[in-house]
Amino acid sequence: MSSFHTLHIQTITRITAKSVAITFALPGALKEHFTFAPGQYITLKTTIDGIEVRRAYSICSTPQEGLTVAVKEVENGTFSTYANRELKEGDTLEVQEPEGRFKIDNSAFAKAKNYAAFAAGSGITPILSMIKTTLTQSPDSTFVLVFGNRTPEEAMFIDELQALRSQYTDRFSIESIYSQSRVDGAHFGRIMKSTVNFVVKNKYAENNFDDYFLCGPEAMINEVTKVLKENEVADTAIHFELFTASTETTEIEAPLNGKTAIKVLCDDEEFEFTMDQETNILDASLDENIDAPHSCQGGVCSSCIARVTEGTAVMSQNQILTDAEVAEGLILTCQAHPTSARIVVDYDDI
């Protein structure tokens, strides 16, 4: 199971008026603990106003560059406001080892592949890592990016992306889309059906993309996925990551008005207690002071995945696990409610 390490902040770079890039200093002894695949994320932990705060942020650097994440300040955001206004170079944060299933495995760069990505706003952060790693580590691969923002001033890493396009003119293309600015050479509006068809059927029809990566708001991801499937793109070639909790919930048919005897296996320790079925398994575990892995607590990241080895549970949301993984007993504990009188949940067996 991933663990936290205390890391010093090496640099903080202002990207836009509302976002910063945070680069961590990695001591030699910890470098192998922070090996990652492009697209993965780290969880940052600190105490703000006496309360422990954890947040997951995608790594925007390449494995060769080090460890950098970007944090966009959101309205009423506890950590994002702290990171943008108070955090300083030399400060320390508790940083969890990289994880996440939205990625390009490093082994893939040995082959020539064509990738396309649709990103909106801060959804560019994991995509940027994928783009830079592909361009530098896979010399025969190509990448097309569709990047949506309100204005060029709000587009994170736009200067770096433009520099990459100038450097890799034959292998990297950007289709910029702005919803509140009309810019020469860019599209006006939002990422929608016509945008996807323009990429797949028109301008890049001959690219024969191997994989598509989608990152941003749920509505955009749903629309792009729908249109890609209409164009007969296989499910296995579409990969996505939400940056906010899904608004779609699954109606739970089983009554959750009873109690369950639960055993939790975490970090080679066993904990047994009784919980209300209307409470999710993660919250019940945290209430028992169990250091269960977690980050977003909204079904967006994959930090809280565990395996049910006895009993049954149902999830109110699931945008991460495949049907096969659910059939194997994997659950997102922040979304899972027990439906049996007894259940055994193993965080170590994943």
Tags for this model:
19% helix, 350 residues, Ubiquitin-like (UB roll), alpha/beta, Rossmann fold, Elongation Factor Tu (Ef-tu), domain 3, six-stranded antiparallel beta sheet, 7 helices, 3 domains, globular
What does the model show?
With 350 residues, the protein is α/β, with parallel strands linked by helices. It folds into three domains: 4-98, Beta Barrel (Elongation Factor Tu (Ef-tu), domain 3); 106-241, Rossmann fold, CATH 3.40.50.80; 259-346, Roll (Ubiquitin-like (UB roll)). The protein is built from seven helices and 19 strands. Helix 4 (193-203) packs across helix 5 (218-230). The protein is globular. The termini are close together.
The N- to C-terminal Cα distance equals: 9 Å
Mean pLDDT value? 93
- Approximate strand percentage: 25-35%
**How many separate domains?**
3
